[in-house]
Each structure stands twice: as structure tokens, then as C-alpha cells.
Amino acid sequence: MTVTAEGVENAEQLELLRGMGCDELQGFHLGRPVPAESLHEALARGAAGLAPANL
């Protein structure tokens, strides 16, 4: 079963969930919502800038 954790708000939660073996993570700590047009543009550039560099 693939486990997805939603609502990751800070680095402490991120590390805890990684340590628990969560397969997928999402939340404001990993990236803010963006309009579809911005997402398409970012993916065309290789998704640079969508997630914090320290992850």
C-alpha cells in the first residue's frame, strides 16, 4: 500500500513522516499551490523553483 501524508507544514513533520516510511508527502512546506499555467511553465523548465532547495 502506498502511503501519502497530506498537510506537511514544517521540517519537523517532514522528517518524522520520512522516518515513518511515508511514500509520498504534500503540503505547504513542500510547495504552495500554483495556477495550472505556472505549473506547466515550471515543468517545462524542469520544475526548478517548485519545491524548497533544502529538501
TrEMBL record:
GO molecular function: cyclic-guanylate-specific phosphodiesterase activity
SUPFAM superfamilies: EAL domain-like
Spans through the membrane: none
Superkingdom of the source species: Bacteria
InterPro entries: Cyclic-di-GMP_PDE-like, EAL_dom, EAL_sf
Pfam family, one: EAL
Gene3D superfamilies on file: EAL domain
PANTHER family: CYCLIC DI-GMP PHOSPHODIESTERASE PDEF, OXYGEN SENSOR PROTEIN DOSP
Record protein name field: Diguanylate cyclase/phosphodiesterase (GGDEF & EAL domains) with PAS/PAC sensor(S)
